[in-house]
Amino acid sequence: MTQSFFKHFHTTALALATVLLIYVMFQLVGIITGSGQLDLFVRSPMEVLILNSVGVVLLFAWIGVYAYQIFKEYRRREPGTQLAIRILRNIALITFIAIAVIYVFSFLALSRGIDNWFNLQVGEAVGEATQLRVMIFNSFESNIRNELEDVVEELASLLGDRDGQDFAIGLSDSSTKQSNQGERDGFQLGELNFESQGTGFVLGSASSDSASLFDETDSANDLRSRIFHLIFDASQATNYEEVTYFEDLSSPEGMVVSSSSRTGSLLPVQPSSRLIEQLYMDSGSHQSLDARSTQDSGELTADRNQSLRSQPSSWELLSGDDGSALLRMLIPIPLADQTRRHYLQVLTTLPLSSQRLAERVSQMRERHERLEYLRNPLKFSFVLALTYITLMALLLATWAAIGLTRRLVQPIRTLSMGTKAVALGHYETLEEVDTGDDLGVLVESFNEMIRKVKGSQEKISQSQLLAEEQNAYLEIVLKHLSSGVMFIDKNERLKNINLATENILQVEADEVKGARLRDMIKRKEEYSPLFASIASVIDRKVLDWNDTVKLETSQGQQILSYSVTELPVPDSASATHVVVIEDITALVQAQRGVAWREVARRMAHEMLNPLQPIQLAVERIQYKTNAHLSQDQSRSLELSFAAISRQLNTLNRIVKEFQDYSKPVVLRKTTLDLNDLIREVIELHEDHEQIDELKLDLNASLPEMQGDPDKLVQVFNNLISNAREATKDSNKVTLEIKTGTNLSGNIVVRVMDNGPGFRSDVFDRLFEPYATTKKQGMGFGLEIVKRIIEAHGGTVTARNNPNGIGAQIQLEFGVNISRPTIQSELISVDTNYREV
Amino acid sequence: MSLADKGKLKRYANAASVCKWAAIVVLWATVSSAFGFSISSVEATRDADNNVLVEMNFDVELTQDVIHALESSIPITVLTNIKIYRVRTTIWDQFVDEYDFRDKIVYRSLYGAYRLNTSDPDINGDYPSLESILEALGEKRTHQLALNDEQSESDEDYRGKVKITLDRSALPSVMRLPVFFKKSWRLQSNRVAFDIQ
Question: In angstroms, what is the C-alpha Rg of chain A?
Fold first, then answer.
């Protein structure tokens, strides 16, 4: 479950982050466009910006962590990292280029679009509408000026006549004195007194004493009266809301004469200082605040028609108490003294149509100015949002690219690790990759391959095990095989030999393994004909070859039969030929013995048949001729008959020997003590004067054995006779018989003499018939001994004594020991014995 | 992870923590510093009906950016935020309620005048100049607060805090983000505490 969580964590986190960032970006766009509603989570633009920035930072950090991980994996040369970096680099590059192109063109389109949108003719139209409005108001101004031109000229005339005089104009009714505060205009008139006269009134300066106002001279009163009537008449004639004469408003002694039809306020609306300043600062033109601001923007320049006006004027709009728009116009009174500033102010209600037009134009103008002002913030906001969104998109795309890359590379990495594990001999299947694409199929195929390889490997292991078992079995068989076996490779080197080969060829396996046949010819010269023959067979590429070779070794003649067979194994590391060697020396000897026995049997049979008639015929001749011969003749004839009789006896003895030799050995075994048997035989020979010294060294603990006592007596008789015959020419005949057991528990009997020993020319044929050095005898003795001993399951060996004096025959009997074996200290195995 | 890596990671974490707090302090100092507005006097009384009458004088000085926007027909709103706390002697004062009063200034290009729109009808209307309207805006302003404190008793003591700010959230939507980056639009006074008699 944990692995599943981490497996899907990246995707889940990416999805959540994307949703969250899209939400935050929606909020950002909502803030910019004013269409979004901030909710409980995001309550201010600052929070939106912070959330966006935090998102960007977190994404940067997240990507940085992933990038660092990939970098570490790259440095560790982990499988699949290079591919991951390549994929990630390409995706990131493509994404970056795409997003950068989108960003650049969006930025240009946005920026230029907004500029173009604002550069439409709207501003110009608004300016022209404003100008049109100004022209309308200028028309009003011209009309007013025309209507009041006479009044202005008359005022100028009156004031020009008064020029240089000091006078003051007082009001008639001080009870209606009011306080007027010009604070809103920032223009302070101070305390004023006024006198109401019908619909008009005359105001006096606050600095003048109110009582003295009415103590002026007649000329001053006359002037005041004339001005009042002039203003009153003008007001009545034009139906203006208010006509007011201001006399040097900057001076505390100025006079105000006003005639008003307004009922809401008795005091005249005072001109704003800005309007007055504007009148004199810009004597060539006049403009309202609308016009001024429009002129600031370079869209409109008020053009005053100087042909209609002899003096500059200024006007402005006022908002009436009832919401109506009032046009206030200020007309200077032209005086010779430029320092004196007297004005005629006219306040008139605009026609409703003009008023609505002015308001609509003004609203449109304000809206346009607002939009114009908002152009740069709008661009800034859109670019900011675009930048954030682009950055978010880029980071999210990078993040997604990382996730995609890891998802793509993971199966490859898994495969790589799997192949490495296989290379190390670990045949474990990989974790299933649930990608649902070709990579998943690849991993599944790899797992299938691993399963098959693992199965094959197990089969191979079983086969190897079986082969090893078979090899061990074969080695055991070869080891205990009586035939020698040699394995030879294609380079004619001995790969292996068995124990029988070691015995037959008198070599050690460790010494000859790996040796070439050619080298063996030199190393073992006694067996060089054998190795030469084998090498020759292999060189001739004969598939199968059988032959026999007769060798003269240090131990005598050895007849070996060998076969060379080529093995059908193409593997160079294996043996290509197998050589089987049989030591058939004994077999040949046995065959020879059989042949000799057959010859002896036939000779005995053939010789015995004529001997009896010859013997009878000789006796008959002696009987018939003895009576007819003289004594000398008879004596001579008896000598001849005696010679014939001796020869016939000799022939009978030979025939007897042939018969004995030719008969098969038939044993009548009984349990016997070999020591006792030897003592009985010795007793038969004790009276024989030819043995000077007889030594018996009979082991008292010698085990009993199964054997034929008659045959064994014949054996020891033959051996003692042979020894006696061999030593008859010695000064002192010594005979020694020793019994005991060897390490194998077998009974060993050794018969030794001090004779000349075996001659070398007959040593190899000691146990063959007719192999004798005696003047009389057929040489069957040792051969009979051998046959009897072998019939008892024993062996006979012969050798000359090591000191060069005498010979010895050793008999060894295999025996079932019926009492505890006592190790004989006297008898040890002598490997130099010739075993037959 | 080796000990060296852990030590390096810990040093990075400490450095990041220091940077974080430094950024918070700088941001707080930048955002919260008084600029443009100042409260000269505040007095508050509470009547028997549990109404609090707050009289205050404050000075408003607009930056050229704000004036330019105002004269470009962007309405400017001044926000008066008043917080009322119940005085507690042992621990900090308990917050009771919060009141916002918004005064809106609009330039009327047709008449070349500034119109003030507040909760006080006596000062609402057109003003011919910016100086006059700002003077009227901050002079002897009175706000009546209906103290909505269920735990209120006659012998409870209250005190308040007032702060004057330029309400940037009342600006046109497209201006909210740009003004966030401009100090000239972060007009605000210090938060001034006052006792309620």
Answer: 77
